């Protein structure tokens, strides 16, 4: 249970609650939601099983794990290279993730500062200035690092156990609030009633593919290093399915919150889409639209705003504390660094990257998100699917997956999963990548 909560905490975060609703609004509403949910189970879930299995099989950092799956020098080098590319991608994701997490902190404190009469502080925290963005980003990174330095069980697992239930409670309360606003039900219809003519749109498909991998933290080593901590008594396919269900459920609930709020905001005179149907300032849409809606409720609205952005801060922290783990594990095991020193070193490097992105925020933030989630993560997941099904020997694969699932060989899962991850998963991911290019 601790592993499922921690792994779900790794998967559930900004990808679900910040990125998913924006992608949904930009790509046809319910049509995107439908494709995203399909990809989550037909592509992300098998990749998650493969990544967890490699991690548990080798019980080491992802560089050593990927390199050890073959005895051929070329495949060992390619596996290690894939793992290193995953760590670099994870560092980039952590860097821009912390910017958004910092904004969440700023916007959760701003209403409180406003109620306390500190209007100047409130405006500075919510003003997206370079100085305020750097300060709140560094604050977010410091919180993450302090948690991670305590280790996996004392740090990540304990904090995810505390934070995840709060996330669900706040989501439920705020969804009920959003649906009672004028325009809220219109947004719910957009979110739940798909336009099937848009389902095969190539931009929608690659966005949904990237979103399914991004929201579940796949391809970058997070789940692989979590798999190395997973008990061999655990039923791995079942555990992966539970993590997928939790992640997809939170994304779906987040959409039920954000999309109705967006349409409710239009009743308050806020413009969401331009003449071409694109979102205004997509990266900052949540921050620009929702406070305007909350302001209509006076003091109560300020409290609701603080609760909402506290929710987003919790979601971001549950993921960011897990994002550092694969990089830290590699630095500790391969470079013999002390864990605390490795944590702070990674934070310093990420802080430098974040600062550069903030200085050129309008250009670099969207570029970093697109490069990491729509190109690198699908490519890395393609390699993990290949290594988890083609490179690893089938007898070892069966032996590893059978631990915690003794009846695996006679199950429907084993009749489908090996050829599915060998042929269908890599084929679909490669097809979508080529189409996007």
Task: Sum up the structure in keywords.
Hydantoin permease; mainly alpha; 437 residues
Question: What features would you describe in this structure?
Answer:
It is found in: Membrane. It comes from Endozoicomonas montiporae. The chain is globular and about 65 Å long. The chain is mainly α. It has a single domain, classed as Hydantoin permease, CATH 1.10.4160. The chain has helices at residues 2-11, 14-26, 30-58, 62-67, 73-115, 119-125, 130-148, 152-179, 184-192, 202-215, 222-228, 236-266, 285-295, 298-335, 339-359, 361-391, 394-402, 412-436. 80% of the residues lie in helices and 0% in strands. It contains 18 helices and no strands.
Rg calc? 21 Å
Give, in order, the helices and strands: HHHHHHHHHHHHHHHHHH
CATH class: Mainly Alpha
Going by CATH, the homologous superfamily would be: Hydantoin permease
Give the tally of β-strands: 0
Helix content: over 70%
* The number of domains: 1
| CATH architecture name | Orthogonal Bundle
User: What is the makeup of the main sheet?
Assistant: none
Pfam families: SNF
Subcellular location: Membrane
Keywords: Membrane, Transmembrane, Transmembrane helix, Transport
Protein name: Transporter
List the helices and strands and how they pair.
Elements: H1 2-11, H2 14-26, H3 30-58, H4 62-67, H5 73-115, H6 119-125, H7 130-148, H8 152-179, H9 184-192, H10 202-215, H11 222-228, H12 236-266, H13 285-295, H14 298-335, H15 339-359, H16 361-391, H17 394-402, H18 412-436
GO cellular component, one term: membrane
Membrane topology: Multi-pass membrane protein
Transmembrane segments: 29-54, 75-105, 125-147, 167-184, 204-227, 239-265, 299-321, 342-369, 375-392
